[in-house]
Every structure is written in C-alpha cells, then in structure tokens.
Design a protein that fits this description.
281 residues, alpha/beta, seven-stranded mixed sheet, two-stranded antiparallel ribbon, 8 helices
C-alpha cells in the first residue's frame, strides 16, 4: 500500500513540475512576443490596464518589491533576447535596476524628505506616478516620445535654463543616443552646482572600452550586437570616463554589495550591477 502511495505521490509531483515548466515556457514566449511586437509607448498604455490583474495572479511570499512593499510568489521573466527569470515585478513593473535605485534613494539620500527640484528623463511609469505625488519634490519629467511626461523634449537640446535642477535622473536613455557626449553635456548644463544624478545604462563590466558601431542600423542586427533592437552601443567601464569628460564626478558603485545574498534574492537584484551616481561641483 505504501509502495503504491509513494508512486502516486511521485507521479503527481512529476506532473505538477511538468505543468509548471510548461506554464513558465509559455510565459517566457508570451513576454518575449509582447516586448518585440509593440513599441514602448504602447506597452506603457497596455501595462496600466493590465497591472491590477497581473498582481492578483502573482501575489505570494517568495519575492518582495521594495517599491510597493508587496510580496509575490514569483516575478515575471524579462528580456528582448535571452530572458532573465524573476526580473519584472508584477505590481510596479520594476526591473532589477529600478529596485536597486529605489533602495539607494531610500537608504542613502534625502530624496524622500528634503526639498529638491528634480528632472526625470524618460521616466519609468511607477517612479513617475510616485514622484509626482511627493510634496517635497518640484518634479518635472521629460522625453521626446513618451505619452506620460510633462514636457516633450530632446535630450540633445533640453528646453531648460542652466543650473536649474538639484537632481537629474536619466536611466537607460543614453544607449539609444548616437551623440551621447552631447546628451551628457546637456544633463550637466541643467544640473545645479552641488547637484547629483543617477544615469543608468546597459553595461558589460567585462568591457574596458564601449562597443559601438553606428553602421549597424537593422533592428535585428542591433539586437544581436547591442542586446536590444533600438540600442546603438554596449557601454564598458569607460562609461565613467565619458561622464567625467562631460564634467561630472563619478565612480562605479556596486550598490547591491551592501545586501546579503538572501536580500538580493528577496528583492531580485542583480549582484554585479553598477549604479552610476554622478555629481556636479
């Protein structure tokens, strides 16, 4: 009797694992199809409508999003090419880099308590919603294409006066810009002396020199070479030299090293991801 019960339990366990693997494979395929089929402005609008339903499906206890404080049984896979497991939070739609930045702002700065004039280029949807509602911030968002920003603006020619902002946030924008040196100089120009910012970009820590080739224009080739169909480079560690050339002071910050392995897993951070924090004297 025990022998047959054991076999039945093993069969049930195997079937459950098989069904889970089947669902995960199809979830990855669906995620990859959506990312490649729709332009980002459309994805933003779709996500606003779908987010409440997605949260109900994925709520649990295995992972915690520090941005909304909610816990989930799993995060969604994400990536235009090779997808990362448990990367995208179902509640805030945040990725690893967003959660790392939030933890840095919360634990290392007075961003949430002091008065600041903030410029946010190409704002992440959840950050935009939250930062706009913070009474201590004089917050302004800008982008050339996003449907949710305050000001339509080209990062190569920002329509703001010199030294206007205490804090400038510009995440995963510069890799889209051929003339990134000009964009960096504009970000420097509008930042106040004594100000600071966060300028995240896709980086390969193993690269000393940034890999870029502007003759590559086909979206499929760009994805093959630079990791995404609309990127023009992979930044290497010389990214910080480029920022310094624009006038900023900065050093690589491996902020996730402040957290234990258990916390990194809980928040689903990337262990070796650099948080580029810049300063203007």
């Amino acid at each position: 009797m025990m022998h047959w019960a054991s076999k039945l339990m093993k069969k049930h366990h195997s079937s459950t694992n098989g069904n889970l693997q089947y669902r995960n494979r199809h979830l990855k395929k669906l995620s990859k199809f959506i990312l490649n089929a729709f332009p980002r402005p459309v994805l933003i609008k779709i996500s606003i409508l779908a987010r409440p339903l997605i949260y109900l499906i994925f709520k649990g206890k295995n992972f915690t999003d520090p941005i909304d404080g909610k816990s989930y049984r799993k995060f969604l896979p994400y990536g235009y090419g090779k997808q990362r497991e448990n990367a995208l939070s179902p509640g805030t739609l945040s990725l690893e880099r967003h959660r790392q930045m939030w933890l840095y702002l919360k634990n290392e700065t007075d961003f949430f308590t002091a008065s600041h004039k903030v410029l946010h280029i190409a704002p992440e949807q959840e950050f935009l919603r939250r930062f706009r509602n913070m009474k201590n911030l004089d917050y302004l968002s800008a982008d050339l294409y996003s449907p949710i920003v305050d000001v339509k603006a080209d990062i190569l020619s920002l329509p703001f006066e010199d030294s206007r902002f205490d804090i400038v946030i510009c995440n995963h924008v510069l890799e889209h810009i051929v003339h990134d040196a000009k964009a960096m100089s504009e970000l420097y120009r509008v930042m106040k002396p004594g100000g600071w910012g966060i300028f995240q970009v896709p980086m390969k820590n193993s690269l000393e020199k940034t890999y870029e080739d502007f003759s590559i224009t086909d979206p499929k080739e760009r994805q093959k070479h630079f990791g995404q169909y609309d990127h023009v480079r992979w930044y290497g560690m010389d990214y910080f030299d480029r920022l310094r050339k624009a006038g900023f002071e900065t050093e690589p910050l491996f902020y996730s090293e402040k957290y234990t392995d258990e916390e990194i897993k809980k928040y689903s951070l990337q262990k070796n991801e650099i948080l580029p924090v810049v300063f203007k004297k």
